[in-house]
UniProtKB/TrEMBL annotation:
Keywords associated with the record: Cell membrane, G-protein coupled receptor, Membrane, Olfaction, Receptor, Sensory transduction, Transducer, Transmembrane, Transmembrane helix
Protein name, as recorded: Olfactory receptor
Recorded superkingdom: Eukaryota
Residue spans crossing the bilayer: 27-50, 62-80, 100-122, 143-165, 198-224, 236-259, 271-295
Listed SUPFAM superfamilies: Family A G protein-coupled receptor-like (SSF81321)
Family to which this protein belongs: Belongs to the G-protein coupled receptor 1 family.
Membrane topology designation: Multi-pass membrane protein
BP GO annotations: cellular response to lipid
Function noted in UniProt: Putative odorant or sperm cell receptor.
Family matches, as Pfam families: 7tm_4 (PF13853)
Length: 317
């Protein structure tokens, strides 16, 4: 990273950190984190399997839910195994190219998830505000195209990321402030002008997260306007179909926006707050989303209860 005469050099590797000040405890803290990761993977796989095997769930809302579950598995898997290696085996070194790959995966998958959440909001808007057109607007081929568009959008927004990072010379510390690689974390180690990276990051956040959250808010304002004109029974039914998605939106956007604000305006770089928020952002949504949809979605809840009922009866003598 730095030559003996202090000259600039290209980065060859970075040092990831666990939990500063809790080095002795992080070995044991890794066990509940690993348990949460396994819960996230199993929970989201269960949702995918239920939707796939239940033909009556082959509707746009549940297909989008499968996309969300798949992305949650990929997002948590892109960071958690590496984090476990740090906590358990003190494996803190990550090669520059591996860091770039992890960074690209985390940011692009997050962009895809934001797009899927927007698609789910659009699905609820059409289903509630234009119910007679729902079947013709959100056909299976169109839902598939939306899924492909989410992948293309997420990857294309992040395509310049490796280029903007590789152009930077690094002559400062090679120690990152997280347990995995993030763009805003890596670029701060550069000893050159990073205004291009900052502008690029702001453009991505505004055009993806900012735009998506604005359109989701607009869709729910229109939904609320329509629902207020319905009967009480119809209002309860309409709100019931939206609760799970609203929870998923808050679970995803609140940690993401909070982490971005801390990185851009935070003063204390040695604080545990950004690290805890970063770990929360990548782990809590994959854990909570299948629980929320399992509890609040009648069809999925009934299928899970039937599975446990069959398992219990099978194990009886």
């Amino acid at each position: 990273m730095v030559d003996t005469n202090g000259s600039e050099s290209s980065a060859t590797y970075f040092i990831l950190i666990g939990l500063p000040g809790l080095e002795k405890a992080q070995f044991w803290l890794a066990f509940p984190l690993c348990s949460l990761y396994l819960i996230a993977v199993l929970g989201n796989l269960t949702v995918i399997c239920i939707v796939r095997t239940e033909h009556r769930l082959h509707e746009p809302m549940y297909i989008f839910l499968c996309m969300l579950s798949g992305l949650d598995i990929l997002i948590s898997t892109s960071s958690m195994p590496r984090m476990m290696a740090i906590f358990w085996f003190n494996s803190t070194t990550i090669q520059f190219d591996a860091c770039l790959l992890q960074m690209f995966a985390i940011h692009s998958l997050s962009g895809m998830e934001s797009t899927v959440l927007l698609a789910m909001a659009f699905d609820r808007y059409v289903a509630i505000c234009h119910p007679l057109r729902h079947a013709t607007v959100l056909t299976l081929p169109r839902v598939t195209k939306i899924g492909v568009a989410a992948v293309v959008r997420g990857t294309s927004l992040m395509a310049p990321l490796p280029i903007f990072i590789k152009r930077l010379p690094f002559c400062r510390s090679n120690i990152l402030s997280h347990s995995y690689c993030l763009h805003q974390d890596v670029m701060k180690l550069a000893c050159a002008d990073i205004r291009v990276n900052i502008i690029y990051g702001l453009i991505v956040i505004i055009s993806a997260i900012g735009l998506d959250s604005l359109l989701i808010s607009l869709s729910y304002l229109l939904i609320l306007k329509t629902v207020l004109g319905l009967t009480r029974e119809a209002q309860a039914k309409a709100f019931g179909t939206c609760v799970s998605h609203v929870c998923a939106v808050f679970i995803f956007y609140v940690p993401f926006i909070g982490l971005s604000m801390v990185h851009r305006f935070g003063k204390r770089h040695d604080s545990l707050l950004p690290i805890i928020m970063a770990n929360t952002y990548l782990l809590v949504p994959p854990v909570l989303n299948p629980i929320v949809y399992g509890v609040k979605t009648k069809e999925i809840r009934q299928r899970i209860l039937r599975l446990f009922h069959v398992t219990t009866h099978t194990s009886d003598p």
